[in-house]
Write a structure and sequence with these properties.
six-stranded mixed beta sheet, 317 residues, Metallo-beta-lactamase, Chain A, globular
Length: 317
């Protein structure tokens, strides 16, 4: 089944040339993404089938349709973390596959039990619906959003002929997990270790902790994966594997210096946020997330950077 591209950032999608297919997996993995937001993949083991992430709520029904076109049953639904653009489609997929067991981190399970978290997921989901399908009046659902079984660092999930090992990779959130699929050695990274936005630019969405994100990058790098699948992008060429984590850490340093300069100028937090958004928001980003979500995330990134610098300064006193 051919899944269409989303967004208009063709330059990004063609980062490695027109002949590179970022969804040409070396094993039976099928892309079932239905709209903007996080990618959704079916990992087809000989004994078990797992769905990796669910995408946004506004396209949840279509994601479920895409899955049903590939399989008549689903054993597992794996959540990389608790953000609305990666698990908003869960209620619609569970309608179609009620037997599927939802897996995620312990922190993710705890977050999704909070009414405040579900309210934010619904609010951001509705903003995305208004952006991408403005004629729709369907309410965004959050019923059934939960984690059934907790995966901890190092836990292994068997699909029969393949296994998925979960790794805590904090930084983007405290609930972020990365997964290493063996064989063939595919690492599904979390947003803690970046989002590719150009061959020479890796965005650093470290909402909670930049030191944790950097530690997560070294943790992932130490696995020496044969293949790397990035959130919001897909596969990168094998020759780029080693460079990727270096570029991520380089951008962490660049953002740190950017914020340090603004602090030295005596800017207020609101002034820094405005300058940050002006520097990093692009029309292409608008095709992948509402500006409201970007501004919220930008505020968290700034706070995480300031906190990291303050903690670093204390260590040198």
């Amino acid at each position: 089944m051919k899944i269409p591209e989303f967004g208009t950032n063709i330059e990004l999608f063609n980062t490695f040339g027109d002949d590179f297919d970022r969804f040409a997996f070396p094993c039976d993995i099928r892309r079932v993404t239905a709209g903007h937001g996080g990618e959704s993949f079916l990992i087809m083991g000989k004994e078990k089938i797992a769905l990796y992430d669910c995408g946004m709520a506004y396209c949840g029904e279509q994601t479920a349709e895409n899955i049903a076109a590939e399989t008549d049953h689903l054993d597992y639904i794996i959540l990389s973390h608790s953000h609305y653009d990666h698990m908003g489609g869960l209620p619609y997929i569970k309608d179609r596959f009620p037997e599927a067991v939802v897996l995620g981190s312990e922190k993710c399970q705890s977050i999704l039990r909070k009414d405040s978290a579900l309210q934010l997921i619904r609010a951001l989901g509705e903003e995305a619906r208004q952006l991408y399908v403005p004629d729709s009046e369907e309410p965004v659902r959050t019923d059934g959003i939960r984690v059934d079984v907790v995966l901890r660092d190092g836990d292994v999930l068997s699909l029969g002929d393949m296994t998925m090992t979960a790794y805590e990779t904090k930084g983007h959130t405290d609930c972020s997990l990365s997964f290493y699929l063996e064989p063939p050695g595919i690492l599904f990274t979390s947003e803690s270790t970046g989002i590719l936005e150009g061959k020479d630019y890796v965005h650093t969405p470290s909402l909670k902790s930049f030191p944790d994100s950097i530690a997560s990058s070294y943790k992932c790098e130490s696995l020496h994966p044969a293949y790397i699948c990035l959130p919001h992008f897909g596969m990168i060429p094998q020759y780029y594997n080693e460079r990727y984590f270096t570029e991520f850490r380089k951008e962490c340093q660049s953002k740190t210096e950017f914020v340090r300069t603004m602090l030295a100028e005596g800017l207020t937090f609101e002034e820094m946020l405005g300058r940050y958004v002006k520097r990093y928001w692009t029309p292409a980003k608008e095709m992948e997330q509402p500006i409201e979500a970007f501004e919220i995330n930008s505020g968290h990134i700034l706070k995480a950077l300031i906190r990291a610098m303050e903690e670093g300064d204390k260590k040198h006193v």
